[in-house]
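Quick entry, no commentary yet.
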Amino acid sequence: MQRELAIQRVLERETPWDILIIGGGATGASLLLDAATRGYSAILLEQYDFGKGTSSRSTKLVHGGVRYLAQGNISLVREALRERSLLRRNAPHVVQEMSFLVPCRNLWQRLWYGIGFKAYDLLAARSDFRPARSLRRDACLQAVSTLRPDQVAGGVLYSDGQFDDTRLLIDILQTAIAHGGIALNYFPVTDLIKNPAGQVTGVAARDSESGQTFTLPARVVINATGPFCDRIRQQDSPHEQPLLTTSQGIHVVLPKRFLPGNTAVIVPKTSDGRVIFLIPWLDHVVVGTTDTPLDEPVIEPRPQTQEVEFLLKTAAQYLTQAPTVDDILSVFTGIRPLVRPQGNAGNRSTSRLSRDHTILRSPSGLVTITGGKWTTARKMAEDCLDRASAWSGLPHRPSRTVELPIQPSNQPLQETDRWARSNDDSQTPSAPAAGVVSPPTKRDPPLTEPLVPGYTLSRADVLWSVRHQMARTIEDVLARRSRLLFLNVAAARQAAPAVADLLMQELHRDHAWRDDQRQQFFQTTKAFECNGPSSPTGKNQP
């Protein structure tokens, strides 16, 4: 997964691609994997970094969707539960089973939710996840030691999946590349190319790093840009009516002490009808999510004060220690692409809009896929390529991803161990070759030493993400190749200077580039701060 090699392959290409995908989120990556494993020549272009948008900002759940069951969307829940099992089987290194407790205040709630989660298990068919069961009050308090005793008279314990979204995304891309696909970040599509008959025959694109422009012909162009898909559609046809309405959801990240065990808590119905999760994740606690309508999507959404207050208030109703703004270590915000029902243009409620995916083809032949969710991304890609290949006349080849293992990222320590052990000043080359870092001297800290106390991220991890995971910026490393920015804003800022120095050396940039990177990253971190009376910039450690 090396950017220079990918660009070289693009330059050497003399025939049109079978499949060209615009967008490097969960849907785009899944499309690339499906296309490459079917034997199609396939390329993915992402204008920023892979997973920069919605796909890195999920609730970290691989699940059927409890609230969709309550809404009566049985087909979506059944499909998502099937995909949940496939993801756990195909990517066991990143998808794990987690227990969720539904606190109940009376016997009626316990019976009601017990029946609901039994139905959830039935829809999962022959799932290998543990079935739901009813718990007495003392068992609930034992499962979640920080649960307020006055809020629970019993409960229901059920199982779902948890994962690290961008770790899985990078693994999907690496698996696709291993099967012949090409993925490029920081490579925006600047125009759609059409023949005299008005049919899309490829794209014009630009390498943001070099400024070089490219013309890439393709038999099928797929718009998989999530919340931004209408921008590509209107580029294809300026009079195209918007397909989507958007909403944003935020998650606040708290220290582990608020939920010290391994069991998550779900509030299936809050005061305004939402579903809220309190979830252990990477030795922290994630609380989310909200659902706030937006007029238009933005690449770096920011949390609203009332959203933060709502999550803190809800968490305080169920935890023995009420979290405050000063306890928040980070806040991350994602945008949902929700397909707009016909005749619903004036409806500002988004919480009940369907998360089903939509696939359509414009008169020019541009294929658009949008909607859906992380758990169903594999199925979305399968459906889209089945239709796209039929529409374009590509030879029919069945999907192979149902039983395809996702390759885990290798650990970086083996490759960098020889540098970590080195302490000979004379071995330092005066001009390191591309992709080769100077070995540390006696004055340098070991490559395996954590960059920030309390977190495992090391220089070795940074080097690995640059060399083998196409990280190009501080944000790529600290937000998506590691999750430090999502876990703790203050810790990410502390690690940034060392990351900038390593990137400068690895990518052969100058000091002005490094300084600009630091400033850009500092601006980005503001979107992960609490938008309230005080901010989470450093008092607390998990």
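second:
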Amino acid sequence: MKSKLFPYINREISWLSFNERVLQEAADTSTPLIERLKFLGIFSNNRDEFYRVRVATVKRLAKLGKKALSVYGEDPKELLTRLQRKVIEQQNNFENIYQELLVELAARNVFIVNEKQLTSTQRIYVSEYFRNELVSNLFPVMIDDSKPFPYMKDKASYLYLRLESIIQNRKSKYAIIEIPSNITSRFVQLPVHRKKRYIMLVDDVIRFSTDQIFEVFGYRTAEAYNIKLTRDAELDIDNDVSKSMIEKISKSVKARKQGQPVRFVYDAAMPDDMLKHIMKKLGMAKKDNAIPGGRYHNFKNFMDFPDLGEKELVYNHPMQLQHKDLKNNAFTTLKVIKEKDILLHYPYHTYNHIINLLREASIDPSVESIKITLYRVADSSKIANALINAVKNGKKVTVLIELQARFDEENNIYWGNKLQEEGARVIYGVPGLKVHSKLFIVSARESGKEVHYAHIGTGNFNEKTSKIYTDFSLLTANKDIAADIIKTFDFYENNFKVQAFKHLVVAPFFMRKQFIELINKEIRYAKNKKPAEIILKMNSLVDREMIGKLYEASRAGVKITLIIRGACSLVTEMEGWSDNIKAYSIVDKYLEHTRVFIFHNNGKEKIFISSADWMSRNLDDRSEVAVPIYSEEIRKQLRDIIKIQLSGNTKVRILDRKQENLYKKLKPGERNIRVQDEIYNYFKSEKEKAEVLKTKNLTVNA
């Protein structure tokens, strides 16, 4: 089936539909008020990355002219127009939601005020705050028309000012000031007055106080507007064989800061003459992704909006659970894994189990070596520190660090250097292949025999994101799986050595082929009038070949259910194509990040968890791993989790052909089922049952 002949939603358009689901959370009145502000921040941060990466790529393709049609499948210039139209529509919705939230905050006696709304007492407080806390972090630049326009950073927000001379017969000038939100909080809490709370954005503190800066030069501020520039974030890695990969990445990260502008956001209230002036200075035509916005940009800072100490305004995050079979801060994890496979599900389970496992391995005299892949680690990584401790205890530690983890390159270079300095063997990725697998293997010698303890996961080894991303970790001492993981690390260490894998499904060598064969099996079962079903949960489904194969399966009568958080290019509700396909998306307080693939397989169900989405980059250009689940207990857990996800009727959207993001409705008499709360309660109940059983056994033995 040729991909160009079947229904397909453009990946970028579908991604904007996903970000609209994030915006829906900000609009949802059932979401706690401050969390709604934080969703505005998430939406804004997502969109920034979308422009830095995806729109930047489309702009590059647009330069190819007609050649782009054969490469991309559609006209990039037309797509850019569609994207801009959708972005502006979403921006208008964003602004309306923000204004609604201001009203709702005011009803709770919380007021976000600007420089024109201050009382005389507040004016004194703000002036003192500016002098004592803020002015030392400001570096204003006066714009000289005879010189190049000052460099504007990506990710930063600026005030663009028109300055009037207080000296007669002297022309007005322009200036820009970077808002130092990476140094100081974006939010200034003013003194409480009569039980009313007042919050002021740093932007407005600067607006209020700029005359203190410019009067000494004979100017005062006439107007000040927020502006922001987004740059192309793609790394251009040169092919100089004399340079190491770390040198190339370091150079490319520095060059990224000078990337070409791909979006200019400005306050829609800005006068035309000011807009024309700065657009000319930036060398951008107004059509070049210039987006009119509101009074403030860089709403990503709203992800850190102060919680104000009122519990009902923020999410209730219950205490993370210990796994029913594992103890916290006890060196017994390896012993338990040797007896049975363990599935951890974050953020419901504590990530301390992984840190404890590595800490235990770093000390255990029987452990000889640890090998691990690191893609994105926390800034002050406990994982990396556990590995360093292992080196100090005489273990052989091999760490594969993926330098091309977008926006984490500098952090990864830091930890690579640190681990190398401590004596670990560090491998900086695989040439031409991004390593995205989430693996480690601990090798020990017990009673003269070699024993291996393995981890295969869906998410990064990052204790911070484990609190907000839903992910799986499979811990196993299964010899067959361990043997395949050892082969995977052999490949990372010796790139010419590609072996056959008997249990793991590994990209880029075999994953596409193996999953296509599993779909083909379901097609054959359906054609032979046997039960045939596929359930897929992932972040993104955009690969054309895999989508074409799912259409083929649907037409053969295979029942297909999709749970896709982000971009989904498959079109549901298309008669003759997707009659047997249902698709849903869950956006809630945690970021859904697990990947689960279930194939009915004529009753001999095959279940996998994986680090890979079904995107071309994952299947063809990355090292990814999917692991089959053999433990009957864990297979049941995964079936139960998917069953809960499919029964959800709160925060669940239907992915329809029009991408309207309609919420799944409650059926008559049906109770509210909020997936993420239900899954937490599921694991909590499992733990409580295990504790009751343990108590009974102790009583009997006594």
